[in-house]
Structure formats: C-alpha cells, structure tokens
Design a protein that fits this description.
By secondary structure, chain A is mainly alpha-helical. Chain A contains five helices and no strands. Chain B is elongated, with a radius of gyration of 27 Å. The chains are: A mainly alpha, B alpha+beta, C alpha+beta.
Chain lengths: 116, 256, 351
C-alpha cells in the first residue's frame, strides 16, 4: 500500500500550490481576468478562494494568456440541459440504478434480524 | 399542474415579493418538510443497532484512576491475573489511544505488580487502559501469593463471529464492531491492541475469545484485514484462568 | 446577472431561506442525538462521537435528497420555485455537513493510532467482491464532488468557467449521489439490524427517480411537437395558434433535433427566443414577462423580448427568432439568429 501515501502527497502538493496561487489570484489576478471583479469586497474574494485553490490550472492559463471570460450565450448549454433531462427522466435509467442497488444490498449484508 | 399555473397568473421571482398563492403554499410545504426530516431523524436514531452494555471509566472524566494488583503475563499480549480482594480474573492491558502495552509490560513478565488505569468492561471481560504515567505499572513490594493460573485445554472448536480489537469492542467505542468500525479495528490491531473473536450462537449469545496463532504467539498480521466482517475460525480452545483463548490455525479462517 | 461581484446578493428571501435551512439542519441533528440518547441509555449507550458522526452524515444525505428533488418539483408545480431560487445555499450546506461528518469520523476512527488518520481510513482492506469494497472511498468521492460544486457555486465561476463547463461540473451531483448511496449501503446499512434505514434509502432513491421521470414527461407534454413541415430547411413553420399563448406567458415549440423555442405574448406583440436561459439553462418558456422582460423561472434572469438582451447593466444575451402572425396562426422561422439580435415583434391582428 505504498501507492496511497504517494497519491495523497501528490494531491497535497497540488493543493499547496493551489493555495499559494489562490492567494495571489484573489488579490491581484481576479480583476485581470474578469472586469466585474474590480473593486469587489474581501468577502467575495474569500468565497472564491477554495475554488481557486482547487481549479488553479484553469485560472492560471486564463491569467497568463489574458483571455476574456467566455461568451455568456453558450450553445452547448441547451444540449447539456436536454441530455440531462432525457437521461435523468428515463425510467430505464432509474430502474437500472434501483436494480444495481438491490443487488448490492443483497450481496453486502446478512439477513435482517440475524446478529452480524 | 400547468393548468393551475396558467389559471392563477402568479409568478415567483426571488428578488420580488413572494406572490400570495406561493406564500400560502410554502407555509404548508416547509413545515411538512421539517416534520418529515424530524421523523426520519427519529426513525434512524431509534432503530440503530443496540451496541450492548459496556463501560469505559475514563480517568479524566470520572476524575480518578483505579489501582489494581496482580500477576503480569507479557506474552502473547500483556495481561494480569488480578489478585486483590474486590476483583478476580484475567484483565488485558493496553495503553491509551490505539496502542498495545507490550513494550511497557515486557519488563514485568511474571512479576507481582500494581497497576494504575481505567476500567473497560463488557459482560465481565475486562481491559485495563494504563494511565498515561511512567508509574502506571510498578513492582509490588510483596511476593505474589500465587502465580498466573494454569492453562486448560478444551479441544478443537469451529466458531463463527467477528474479529474485533478488544479495546474498542469491550467499551471504548460503542459500537466497536462492524463495517463502520472496520478501519479503526485494523488501526487498533496494527497498533498492538489484542484481537478478539466475538462468537455468537444461534440465540445471539456472545462469547469472547482472545486470538493467538497456532502456538500461542500473537495473531498473524494476515488476519488483521478480516476484522469487522463475519468470519469462520477453527482452532484449539484453551482457558487461561477465566479467559477464553483460541489458538487459530490460519488456513482455517474464512470470510462468511 | 450581477454587474459587479459581492459574496452573496442578499435579499429578504435569501435571508428567510437560509434561516429556515440552518434551523432545519439544527433541528434534525438535535432530534437525532436526543433520540439516540433516549433510546440507548447507559451502559447500553452509543458513543457521543458515533451519534454525532451519524447525525451529520444522515443530515447531509437527507438534504442531498431535497436538493435533487427541488429541481423536478419546481417543474411539476411552480409554487416550489421559491425553494429552487436559493438551492445553491442548500448544496453548500450539504457539503459543509459532509465535511464535518468526514472530519469527525477521520479523527475518531482514524486518529489516536500508529498511522496518519487519513491513511488509516483509506487504506485498502477490500477485495474485488462488490460487497467488500471499502465504503470510505465512496464517501470521499462524493465529498470531493460536493466540494467542487460548493467551491464553484458563486456566479463568478459560472462566468469564468463558461456556462457549459459549469453546468457539466454541477451535473456531477448525480455521480456524487450514486457514490454516497454506495457509501451508505456498504457502510452504515451493513451494520444495522433492522430494515428501517435500508427502506428509507430505497424510498429516497425511488422518490428522486419518480420526480425526475415525472418532470421529464411533463416537459415533453408542454412542448408542442413540430411536425408540420417535412422539408429539411423550411423557411417558415406553423408554430401554434395565437390563442394558444396566454398573455405574458409563452408556448414552447419543439423543433426536430429537439431544439426548443419559447414564443411569448406581451399584449399585442409576439416574440420568439430560445427556451434556454443563458445563466444555467433554465426553461425560459416556463417563465413570464415581468416589467416588459422575459423572466426565467429559476433565478429571475431577465431578457428584453424584442432583442434577447438583459436590460443594462446586465450583459446576458440569448438567441432570438423571426415570427409573424398569419390569420390566427403564429409562423416561426426556425433559423436561430445570433444572441441579442433585434427582431421586430409580430403584432396580433395586423395581418
């Protein structure tokens, strides 16, 4: 099990870099990539801090290249919402979910009433 | 529902005031939701599995440690045969936290000692959690009135039950068994807490066996990951005083 | 929607909502702990830490069900819209409860030992048999997704990750739900001697499933299917009757390829825009015209009917479509115009 400590320390490193980046980002970076953030209060900057620490590569690329925010009218949005509605509204999908769950319950526990 | 919405032309926008029909609806819907939450909380809390009767007299909480005297046996796990007037029988010894007491007990093997610690007890089976002090075990000035009790051989048995760490199960954590406790049991056993088999018969009556390897040494580390789940175990059943011990043959252990 | 960012655009509604939310969570956990203590008096008691871990975990799980149910409920009955409006605060609360649950369990079950507490909790003991997978891993998966959602819940992220990426990220809630169902099923449910908690989880899944199915059925029903023309690119199609559109409301028309268009009626004017709100993809056709603007039923984003632009200082834009009135019918050109393109509304009774 020496893989697990390695993975955990890699995640730790990623987040540590993210934390340093996030501090710089919320102080000087955020208004560079999004003009609406200029002069925004500290409460807002603190609120986006955890997300900036977790998603720092995305923001770093935007900051370095000086890209503007993506266009608000995004044609993909309609497709995604349609797919969601069709998939999550499908009886077959949920029947499958329930079936998997029943199998899991049956596989993973002794019958009720029996002492474990 | 579309019909009703088009009949009453009310429309909710978060930053405007709530329309009358909506607010009347929410005055019912929100309390109903709260009641459902309360009933779920009651239902789940009430039907939890009974953890059984067990006590952990925590020193810092109850304000004192107890003092015992007895004959110490360091192997395979530290334990004492109590010989003071109030309490008799064998009690296992562990350190605070998830640590075994082998290191500390080694120097006192076979000696008459005085012990300072907390009592952990379930169904008459005891563990003493040593006080966090260098004087938790000291040699008794008097020689022992008797030695550690002789062993008694009761033959081979096959039992089904769960491997637990004795400390949590006997009262430190309630419940100190089962799946949600599994990672803790593995941590405790890795840290040297004595392993125990909780065997239940058809009627649900539990009996507890200290687990050792085939030759009476500490249990094999391979069995640690099996803690917390139902297993079948075959081994030689022995009595050390009032303590049931099972010398497990590792190849007989199966998950059930 | 905001021209400049602040941490929360507080209004009376959000304050009442958050008050009720915090009260409900406190009520749930208090009930759980008190009932747990009354039902199991010492020496047969459950450890306090166990009660707290279970109280926090089940509170998060119950609240997650509510988060998942509010969307379809608001579709089925508009009066649930008030619960949808500030749903993100409920989602963040689910994450906070989950985090507290994880922190107390890692400290309690993983702490005090010879290993790093997190490692002790996540170290493998499982096998390939599904019933023996370590349940802690599923809890972690769910928590990571909930974290990403909570951390990106501010509209800043919506604008800066792009609405589509943001939406995709937040649809991971269904994966989080699946992971947490596994977490509960392989962990807590395995240790219980009664069927009650298992039945409750089953009822929860069934509730989420049936509401999603019902909302989808309804959505299909309210959109008029457009099969009038069989030509590949018909210039104008017969969308609906003028009288089909209620005043200040819309009729949703479904084109081939499942594109949806909302045709609004505002007094004597008829305008057509996409059914998809630029904010989070909300169903504009289920909205209403308020103060002359098409208003989304989800978060109240507004667009002018004639050009699909949000009134200043807001900058959102949506697709518009050409319409004209022919007798009692509304004719629609299904070619979407660029977002924010001005289209002269068709006048009823001017043909």
């Amino acid at each position: 099990m020496s893989v697990l400590p390695l993975i955990l320390s890699m995640v730790g490193c990623y987040l540590a870099i993210g934390a340093v980046f996030a501090l710089a980002f919320v102080t000087v970076g955020v208004q560079r990539i999004d003009r609406a953030a200029a002069g925004s209060p500290w409460s807002f900057r603190l609120l986006i801090l955890p997300g900036a620490a977790a998603l720092w590569p995305v923001l770093l690329v935007r900051w370095v290249r000086g890209l503007p925010p993506p266009a608000p009218a995004d044609p993909r949005l309609a497709r995604i919402e349609r797919t969601r509605s069709v998939l999550m509204g499908s009886g077959a999908y949920w029947a499958f979910v329930l079936l998997v769950w029943f199998v899991l319950v049956a596989l993973s526990r002794p019958p009720w009433g029996a002492s474990p | 529902m579309t019909k009703r919405a088009s009949n009453s032309d009310e429309f909710y926008v978060g930053y405007l005031s709530v329309p009358w029909g909506h607010s009347r609806f929410l005055r019912v819907a929100v309390p109903v939701t709260l009641w459902v939450m309360v009933f779920v909380a009651m239902g789940v809390a009430w039907t939890q599995r009974d953890p059984g009767r067990a006590v952990w007299e925590e020193g810092p909480d109850s304000g004192f440690f107890r003092l015992w005297d007895g004959v110490l046996r360091a192997k395979p796990y530290p334990m004492v045969e109590l010989i003071n007037a109030r309490e008799e029988g064998v009690a296992l010894l562990v350190e605070m936290g998830k640590h075994g007491a082998s290191e500390r007990a080694a120097a006192f093997d076979g000696k008459h000692v005085m012990i300072l610690g907390n009592r952990v007890e379930r169904d008459g089976r005891r563990i003493i959690e040593l006080a966090d002090s260098p004087d938790a075990i000291v040699t008794h000035p008097d020689p022992a009135p008797r030695g550690f009790p002789p062993e008694e051989d009761l033959g081979e048995v096959t039992l089904t039950g769960e491997i637990v760490d004795a400390k949590c199960f006997l009262g430190v954590m309630k419940p100190g068994e089962g799946m949600t406790h599994k990672s803790c049991a593995i941590l405790c056993l890795t840290g040297g807490i004595p392993p125990m088999l909780v065997a239940r018969d058809e009627a649900g009556m539990a009996s507890y066996y200290l687990l050792t390897d085939e030759n009476g040494g500490p249990m094999a580390a391979e069995l640690i990951p099996l803690a917390g789940e139902p297993v079948e175990v075959t081994g030689m059943h022995r009595k050390w005083g009032d303590l049931d011990v099972l010398h497990v043959r590792i190849e007989t252990v199966k998950k059930r | 929607m905001s021209a400049s960012y602040t941490w929360v655009h507080w209004n009376r509604h959000k304050k009442v909502y958050d008050g009720a939310l915090v009260g409900a969570v406190a009520l749930y956990i208090a009930t759980f702990v008190v009932v747990g203590k009354v039902a199991f008096p010492p020496p047969g008691n459950l450890s306090d830490e166990v009660l707290i871990v279970r109280g926090l975990g089940t509170a998060a799980f119950v609240l997650l069900h509510m988060v998942l149910c509010i969307g379809p409920l608001a579709r089925l009955d508009r009066r649930f819209a008030a619960l949808l409006y500030n749903r993100r605060h409920m989602g963040v609360t689910v994450f906070c409860l989950g985090l507290a649950h994880a922190a107390v369990s890692i400290g309690y079950y993983g702490g005090f030992g010879v290993r790093n507490p997190l490692l002790a909790m996540l170290s493998g003991y499982g096998s390939l048999v599904p019933g023996e997978w370590p349940f802690e891993w599923f809890g972690l998966m769910g928590l990571v997704i909930l974290f990403l959602m909570a951390a990106t819940s501010h509209d800043f992220w919506l604008a800066n990750l792009s609405a589509a990426s943001w939406k995709r990220l937040h649809l991971l809630v269904y994966f989080a739900y699946a992971a947490l169902v596994m977490h509960v099923t392989l962990g807590f449910l395995r240790d219980q001697s009664t069927i009650v908690p298992t039945l409750l989880v089953g009822a929860g899944i069934a509730l989420v499933a049936s509401l999603h199915i019902a909302a989808s059925v309804m959505e299909r029903r309210i959109a008029t299917s457009q099969a009038a023309s069989r030509e590949p690119h018909p210039q104008w199609i017969d969308a609906c009757a003028v009288d089909d559109i209620p005043e200040s409301r819309a009729r949703v028309v479904c084109l081939k390829g499942s594109e949806r268009i909302a045709i609004f009626r505002n007094g004597g004017s008829i305008s057509a825009v996409t059914n998809v709100c630029a904010h989070q993809g909300g169903p504009l056709g289920e909205g209403k015209i308020v103060d002359g603007c098409i208003t989304c039923p989800w978060h109240g984003y507004q667009y002018r009917a004639e050009d699909g632009c949000s009134p200043p200082p807001f900058t959102e834009k949506i697709h518009t479509y050409q319409v004209r009135v022919q007798g009692s019918r509304v004719m629609l050109n299904p070619e979407a115009l660029a977002p924010g393109t001005r289209v002269e509304p068709a006048r009823v009774g001017e043909e």
